[in-house]
Design a protein that fits this description.
Blueprint (H helix, E strand, L loop, with lengths): L4 H19 L3 H4 E5 L6 E2 L3 E8 L5 E8 L9 E3 L6 E11 L2 E12 L5 E12 L6 E7 L2 E6 L6 E5 L6 E6 L6 E7 L2 E6 L4 E6 L5 E6 L9 E3 L4 E4 L4 E5 L6 E6 L10 E7 L2 E6 L4 E5 L6 E6 L16 E5 L6 E6 L4 E9 L1
Length: 347
């Protein structure tokens, strides 16, 4: 009896699938990236010697490598001197038997050195609105601008820092929880916490002129800028870089010491080429390398909260402002009744 048409069709399809499958080879089954003298973690002081393990004896015609999205290179040595902190991806591009393959290997990079330790000395204190749930703090000349949080109480303020007087105030709509601010090109940029929305204001009038959104970062926490780029924290270990023209999130760094990850990065301030970052619910400010994410210093602010009026809604340290004075910061906290001018001293 002749086979049925259905049987013949099914057999032909099966042969076709097997034939196609035999021609598609998984790169990870053929090759892997090997590191000479591997370690659990690396630092920017390391240079890795790498090789390709050829598991199936393929004839390799060409190999090139890359770190993350960087340019490819042919030398089997990778310097980590410019690597960012956190998980980094080594890529190998392999041509073998006329076909192209890509394999990857993940490594973790930590800071090279133990952070320098700093303490502080109170130079002056000034009145501060005890009802201001401080989320962002930044000077423009002698005027202190402040963003406050809590739904139905959030605001943007222009203040006289010496007297605590609120010179001008713009209230946010009730559904918004105000967060960090930064000032650039005569504009104020203000984040909100969970609404994925930021606001843009004219510096001289506090008139709202626009909004922006953030889609990749988790939430809105802190902002600062270096004059050409804006940096944004989102409550995790990440600090994002925003394009100043359209406020899109272009890249991020992850914050690490030489031992561990630092998360809950909060209010930010740009100080002489570094990012100073409040760590939420910690009496500490981290000094962060903006290119790599390495924590280069830690300011121990323990005891400062004891210097303000103790009351039921008193909350944590939050708010760093820099006025251009060497080693001097202005700091406050959520519902603190004082703003402090402090000198930062290396231990």
């Amino acid at each position: 009896m002749m086979p049925s048409c259905k049987f013949l069709t099914a057999t032909l399809l099966l042969l076709l699938v097997v034939a196609c499958g035999s021609d598609s080879e998984n790169a990870n089954d053929l090759f892997s990236i090997e590191i000479n003298n591997p370690k659990n973690t690396y630092t920017q002081e390391d240079a890795l010697t790498i090789s390709i393990s050829n598991k199936k004896g393929k004839k390799i015609e060409n190999v090139s490598f890359a770190l993350d999205a960087g340019e490819s290179f042919s030398e089997p040595t990778i310097s980590l001197s410019q690597a960012k902190m956190g998980n980094r991806i080594i890529k190998a591009y392999i041509t073998a038997d006329g076909k192209n393959y890509e394999v990857t290997k993940t490594i973790k990079v930590l800071a090279s050195k133990t952070p320098k330790l700093y303490t502080y000395k109170i130079l002056e204190s000034y009145p501060h609105d005890i009802k201001a749930y401080t989320q962002g703090l930044e000077f423009k000349n002698d005027t202190l601008y402040e963003s406050t949080g809590q739904r139905m109480h959030s605001s943007l303020r222009k203040t006289n820092y010496k007297t605590g007087e609120v010179l001008q105030k713009v209230d946010l709509e009730d559904q918004y929880f105000g967060e960090g601010i930064t000032i650039l090109n005569d504009k104020i940029y203000q984040l909100t916490w969970q609404a994925k929305t930021g606001f843009i204001y004219r510096l001289n009038t506090l008139e709202k002129t626009g909004t922006f959104v953030y889609t990749n970062s988790k939430e809105g926490w802190g902002l600062c800028n270096d004059g050409s780029k804006i940096y944004k924290s989102d409550g995790t270990e990440k600090i994002w870089t925003l394009n100043v023209n359209n406020l899109s999130e272009e890249d991020f760094i992850e914050i690490y010491t030489n031992h561990s990850i630092i998360d809950k990065v909060n209010e930010l301030e740009w100080v002489e080429g570094k990012i100073y970052a409040n760590i939420y619910q910690k009496d500490a400010i981290a000094i962060v390398n903006p290119n790599s994410g390495a924590v280069e210093g830690v300011i121990n602010m323990k005891g400062l909260q004891d210097q303000v009026t103790q009351h039921t809604t008193l909350d944590v340290l939050n708010g760093i402002a820099y006025k251009g004075e060497p080693n001097i910061l202005y700091v406050t906290g959520k519902n603190w009744d004082k703003l402090f001018k402090v000198e930062i001293i290396e231990k």
